[in-house]
Amino acid sequence: MSERRLYFRIDDYLDLEYLSVDEKTVRQTPAENLFPGSAAIKAYAELKKVDSEASQLFYQIKDKDRQIAEYLHLLNRKIDLLGQQLISEPRLRAQVGERRRVNISEGGLAFSNAEALAREQYLALNLTFLPTYVGLAVYARVSRCEPVRTGGFEIAAEFETMTEPQQHILSQQIMRAQMADKRRHQDLYPPA
Residue 15 pLDDT more than 60? Predict the structure, then answer.
């Protein structure tokens, strides 16, 4: 069984930007350094990480004092709105990434592309998950490039050198997409 089938795969829409790079760049330069807008995305990802870490404390406070908990919840929503504005505004001005349907797992992704990419070609990927605007800048290597009869190419790439925090963010976003897909399915086909 190939390794790419060991991961759960899901179809999702994300903003995707890529650059072809060489192996030296992969080994020596963090992927986020190649994308000017990724600093804001990284800051937003850190905000979400802090939010996740604080959630247990929030529930403990909520058990003791509902008014303080509601106030903290409102403050958190304000920070989220500011964070979303921080990352969406530069993207709107620059129209950086292209919203695409991708098939993604913790091992890699597949997407349609207008141009062919060479097999074994390294890519720097700037992925922004929607609607959360959580972003990742990572490296991948093209494992497959096949023409599509409607035009263009289907590109498959395997992630390279992901850090543990990047893997955690990716798995959270895949779980979020799974839950959203399940809710959509339940809305369309409610239990009898």
Answer: yes
Q: Which residue has the tokens 């959509």?
A: 184
The CATH number linked to 151 is 2.40.10.220
Residues forming a β-bridge with 20: 123
**Letter for the amino acid at 126?**
N
Q: What's the distance, Cα to Cα, between the start and end of the chain in Å?
A: 38
Report pLDDT digits (tens) over 154-171: 999 999 988 888 888 888
* Residue 192 resides in a domain: no
Q: Which helix (H) or strand (E) holds 7?
A: none
DSSP 8-class letter at 32: G
For residue 49, which phi and psi values (nearest 5 degrees)? -65, -45
Total domain count for the chain?
Answer: 1
For residue 37, which phi and psi values (nearest 5 degrees)?
-80, -5
Q: Is 112 helix (H, G, I), strand (E, B) or coil?
A: strand
17-55, pLDDT tens digit by residue?
Answer: 999 999 999 999 989 889 876 666 667 767 777 877 888
Three-state SS for 126?
A: strand
DSSP state of 119: T
Q: How far is it, in rounded angstroms, from Cα 102 to Cα 112? A: 8
